[in-house]
Design goal:
Helices cover 15% and strands 29% of the residues. By secondary structure, it is an alpha/beta fold. It has five domains: 213 residues, no CATH class; 79 residues, 2-Layer Sandwich (Alpha-Beta Plaits), CATH 3.30.70; 282 residues, 3-Layer(aba) Sandwich (Rossmann fold); 122 residues, Glucose Oxidase, domain 1, CATH 3.50.30; 117 residues, Immunoglobulin-like, CATH 2.60.40.10. Strands 15, 16, 17, 18, 19, 20, 21 and 22 form an eight-stranded mixed sheet that branches. Strands 37, 39, 40, 41, 42, 46, 47 and 48 form an eight-stranded mixed sheet that branches. It has a seven-stranded parallel sheet with strand order 7-8-6-10-12-14-23, sandwiched between helices. Bound molecules: 2-acetamido-2-deoxy-beta-D-glucopyranose (NAG) (5 copies). One 2-acetamido-2-deoxy-beta-D-glucopyranose binds next to loops.
Length: 948
């Protein structure tokens, strides 16, 4: 069960773990999740290379293909969309070499895209294929109002004639709300299973023609399909209606019942969807990957778009990592990436009554009728002390002991526990005691999200109002008299969601590393009730950008059904310019476009818009004073209109703390990105215009961010240009940028740190048995001695402390102390004379003609061939605290060797923004002071492990 978000991968960058020191490179390596399949690539071939042959045979004509040791995984033979292969080699192959081979247009590593998580609630089916009738007073279709879809349904606009392809985990089309069958004439009319039930991303797929998925863990696709096009039949289910209930669905199954899917299968599925005539390809999946330059989906999405197929994809569920947490394929430039907004209500609450027939509503996906009449016992009962939240939250072991001693019959008893922020969900002992169900009360507004299905005991949640009701009734109960509830309500009611209409905490942030505005738009995606495999209960309440993407796909189907001739970019622009920006949670500030894109989708406004605004977004990239932008407003109505322009600033974020102090102003104590009020300003060449029918005008807008003193904190500013017509129609254009010049700032964080131990770049001297950075010593300027000994307590070793931002290549190595290399930055006074003690250590040729003793660490954005000492780095910002515990280096060929005593300097080189790896001028570098190493020649080979 989960209430408060956990830390994302970028925790290291945010400063939360800034005292962490890594002791060796292998440790760093193991921290990285290998999503890349070794020696396996998607290869796009040149269209004119050996035309007439099949992709496989063409690949065989390339130089890497001339090697015998590869096998084809997929062939892509559509010259219109994508022509190439995915191949797996038996031996290491260098991606850069592959990419530059004759006949090869481009190449990417095959990587595993993780399975989208199922965050939410579902149950088990007890009723066979016919589903119970849960219809009650709950406004189950509230998301349709939030996205202004209902008004289109009322006019009969339901997506007829538009084909939506779902690339997902398959669909249980036997569900009565999804048509009950598969094939022509059914709601799920087309599809293919690329993988089979047993596929997990690492084994061989078993394709077949039927995309049916009935496993609960494969229920994701059934849920997203429902969001697009479900329609509960009379007297079954909740009365749910999808966004485009008359659209045709095509189901391409790429996930089995567990595990991920490789990106080469996703590309095959995208191409198949196009072949089968899809209008919209909806992808509720993604791999956290915020660099556009290595996105393998870019070309395919672009080609599909130019053929009139719209690609809609989830931006990702990595929002707790803050800015730059978006994923591929969503960030493909022609795709529409979708963020998530929380539902206004919990749509599935149920009523229980006490003996005086007073109601209590609890949240669960299905009614807990099987409980019947149960007596409510509070955790802490039987203790001779007042019952406090600390006791009922389960954080006090005495309470569990008392409960155990009470010997209660859990067939007729339910346990009331409370959720408290300091304690979380410490209810584990309940399962051991045999508790069947928990009534969970709240003392503050909480995002109620249960993410472990089938958890024992079942947790039934009470919102704040019902929590107060229950607790006051329990408090008033006469001593010795039990309070009982009967779980007799079987018709759904709803309760308000205090997080409703705000961006969801899990929704990934833009921009891309290349500073393109992402996500493009948002839709309801938090706490969404939709269809689920019949065997798994038929319905689930799930949360994720997986849920908001199909909402947008469905809305797009409605728009497309009314405007079949608009191009994909025109359709997207309509959706974006008519969306409504929302505020941050519990705030008067409009949320950044980096969080919500253009805002909450408004399907009705998109369909009925009679003004065209172009462009639909501004990515202002990196500048303290971005160039003026032009907005064209075209009145396509039959009447004269007056438009006024306004600027609405959005919130400001920082990815890292500001480095000037240890005050954190990037992430809150709950590890959510802080929303700062540092608004940009905007000036218009005209603040209002009047246009006759068919007329258009171009207005210039100059956006100016506030100067930011902390570029190394990766700040992002944003806002909206709002255009209001005198008939009250509203349009807006989101913008986003970073308020500094990334090229000028450079990738090495420097000159801004004053508080030890945050200095970067630098070296600290640490005792080998205490790598706590705060305890490390500041070395003497220019020259410091370090020593290794088998008695680790006596060893004082160097710790390299270097922070970088947005670099795709870095190299940390030890070089001769008298190196003539001129760095961008010196870590010593070059005028001070030192008598060097040269080590008896061979000098290697080195990188870009700089002589070296060997590498400490090298990282690049893309995976390197097996055996390479260069690691793939997945970090966006980079906090390096690396202790040289074992005085060993690595050659560029990957050989590791122990070094000899003597003088060394550390050289750090990192590629500047948009730099070329082979150009020495494109690096920012730092050369450190002399490190005089005292390394005993008898240091054991397995030091430090061998030391006492
Ligand atoms: C790495 O993968 C494991 C297993 O899939 C997962 O639990 C963990 O959160 C991942 N770590 C990161 C940093 O993404
Ligand atoms: C391309 O591949 C598909 C699927 O493998 C196949 O059905 C089709 O016939 C091929 N087309 C050509 C022109 O080879
Ligand atoms: C409840 O527990 C927290 C954390 O252990 C503690 O800080 C707090 O003082 C406790 N409150 C009471 C009222 O005992
Ligand atoms: C609880 O119910 C189960 C199943 O009906 C039964 O086997 C068990 O004996 C009951 N326990 C008690 C303490 O009544
Ligand atoms: C950023 O600085 C570089 C180097 O001075 C310059 O070439 C580039 O034009 C600048 N970019 C912008 C957007 O001002």
């Amino acid at each position: 069960m989960k209430f408060s978000p956990t830390l994302g991968l970028l925790a290291l960058v945010s400063g939360a773990s800034s005292l962490t020191v890594t002791t060796n490179v292998d440790q760093l390596r193991s921290k990285q999740n290998t999503t890349v399949v070794p020696n396996t690539f998607i290869v796009e071939l040149q269209p004119d290379f050996h035309p007439g042959l099949q992709p496989k045979d063409r690949f065989a004509k390339t130089k890497p293909g001339a090697k015998p040791n590869w096998r084809v995984r997929h062939q892509y033979n559509d010259t219109d969309i994508f022509y190439g292969v995915s191949v797996s080699f038996d031996s290491p192959v260098d991606l850069a070499t592959l990419r530059t081979s004759a006949g090869v247009k481009n190449a990417w590593s095959v990587a595993v895209v993780p399975r989208p998580e199922l965050r939410g609630l579902w149950g088990v089916n007890k009723g066979g294929t016919k589903l119970p009738d849960y219809r009650g007073s709950s406004d189950v279709n509230r998301p349709l109002d939030m996205g202004n879809v209902q008004k289109l349904h009322d006019k009969g606009i339901k997506g007829k004639g538009v084909q939506v392809a779902l690339i997902d985990s398959g669909i249980d089309y036997t569900h009565p709300a999804l048509g009950g069958g598969f094939g022509r004439g059914h709601k799920v009319a087309l599809g293919y299973d690329f993988v089979g039930d047993a596929y997990d991303g690492s084994n061989d797929p078993q394709p077949d023609g039927d995309p049916l998925a009935t496993c609960a863990d494969g229920g994701h696709g059934t849920h997203t399909a429902g969001i697009v096009a479900m329609q509960d039949p009379k007297k079954q289910g909740f009365g749910l209606v999808g966004v485009a209930p008359e659209a045709t669905l095509a189901a391409y199954r790429v996930f089995g019942c567990e595990g991920g899917a490789t990106n080469d299968i996703l590309i095959a599925a995208m191409i198949q969807a196009w072949r089968d005539g899809a209008d919209i390809v909806s992808m509720s999946l993604g791999l956290w990957q915020a660099w556009e330059e290595i996105n393998p989906f870019e070309d395919v999405v672009d080609k599909l778009t130019s053929h009139g197929v719209a690609v809609v994809a989830s931006i990702g569920n990595f929002g707790t990592a803050g800015p730059y947490s978006s994923s591929t394929p969503a960030i493909s430039l022609s795709a529409l990436s979708v963020g998530s907004i929380e539902s206004d209500i919990y749509p599935t609450a149920w009523t229980a009554h006490d003996d005086q027939h007073r109601a209590i509503n609890y949240i669960n996906v299905f009614p807990a009728s099987e409980l019947g009449r149960v007596e409510v016992v509070q955790l802490g009962y039987g203790l001779a002390v007042p019952i406090t939240p600390n006791i009922t939250s389960g954080c006090d072991q005495d309470a569990w002991d008392a409960l155990s001693n009470a010997q209660l019959n859990w067939n007729t008893t339910i346990l009331q526990v409370s959720w408290e922020s300091w304690c979380g969900t410490a209810w584990g002992p309940a399962a051991d005691l045999g508790v069947k169900a928990l009534l969970v009360t709240m003392s503050e507004a909480q995002d109620i999200l249960v993410d472990e299905p089938g958890s024992e005991p079942a947790a039934l949640y009470l919102d704040i109002d019902n929590s107060k009701l229950l607790l006051s009734r329990l408090a008033k109960q006469p001593a010795g008299k039990k309070y009982a509830l009967t779980f007799d309500g079987t018709k759904a009611v709803d309760v308000a969601n205090p997080y409703g209409s705000a961006p969801d905490y899990f929704s990934s942030f833009g921009p891309t590393i290349e500073m393109t505005l992402e996500p493009k738009i948002s839709a309801p995606g938090g706490t969404i009730l939709s269809t689920f495999p019949v065997d798994a209960g038929g319905y689930a309440v799930l949360s994720g950008t997986s849920m908001s993407a199909p909402f947008v796909s469905g809305s797009l189907a409605l728009l497309k059904s009314q405007n079949p001739r608009l191009t994909v970019p025109q359709l997207f622009a309509r959706l974006m310019t008519t969306a409504r920006p929302v505020n941050e949670l519990n705030s008067k500030l409009t949320a950044s476009a980096a969080r919500q894109g253009a805002g909450m989708i408004d399907a009705y406004a998109a369909v009925t818009a009679d003004t065209v605004i172009s462009p639909a977004e501004f990515s202002l990239r990196d500048s303290a004073s971005p160039a003026p932008q032009k907005i064209t407003i075209s009145n396509q109505s039959r009447s004269r209109k007056r438009y006024s322009l306004q600027h609405v600033p959005g919130t400001f974020y920082r990815l890292s703390n500001n480095y000037l102090s240890d005050i954190k102003d990037n992430f809150s104590s709950a590890n959510l990105p802080l929303t700062l009020d540092i608004p940009a300003s905007a000036q218009f060449s005209q603040s209002s215009v009047t246009l006759g029918p068919g007329q258009s005008v171009t207005v210039e807008v100059q956006i100016k961010p506030q100067p930011d003193m902390y570029p190394f904190a990766n700040p992002v500013y944003s806002g909206f240009i709002k255009i209001t017509a005198d008939d009250d129609d509203e349009y807006s254009v989101p913008y986003l940028g970073v308020p500094y010049n990334r090229t000028e700032v450079g990738p090495i964080v420097h000159n801004v740190t004053t508080v030890k131990p945050y200095d970067s770049p630098g070296i600290l001297k640490a005792q080998a048995t205490n790598l706590f950075l705060a305890d490390a010593l500041t070395p003497t300027p220019n020259l410091e001695t370090y020593n290794w000994t088998t008695d680790l307590d006596e060893a004082y070793i160097p710790v390299f402390r270097i922070d970088t931002i947005m670099t795709r290549f870095l190299r940390l190595e030890l070089v001769p102390a008298n190196v003539s290399f001129v760095p961008s930055m010196y870590g010593f006074d070059p005028d001070v004379h030192i008598d060097y003690k040269f080590p008896d250590q061979p000098i290697l040729p080195g990188f870009l003609d700089v002589p070296t003793y060997g590498l400490v660490l090298a990282e690049s954005l893309e995976p390197q061939p097996e055996g390479s000492p260069i690691m793939q780095s997945t970090d966006i910002g980079h906090f390096l605290g690396l202790a040289l515990l074992d005085p060993s280096l690595t050659s560029d060929k990957g050989d590791k060797f122990r070094i000899a005593a003597g003088d060394y300097r550390v050289l750090f080189r990192t590629l500047r923004w948009r730099g070329n790896e082979t150009n020495p001028d494109d690096y920012e570098s730092w050369l450190g002071p002399v490190m005089r190493f005292d390394i005993p020649s008898d240091l054991p080979p397995d030091f430090p492990n061998s030391s006492e």
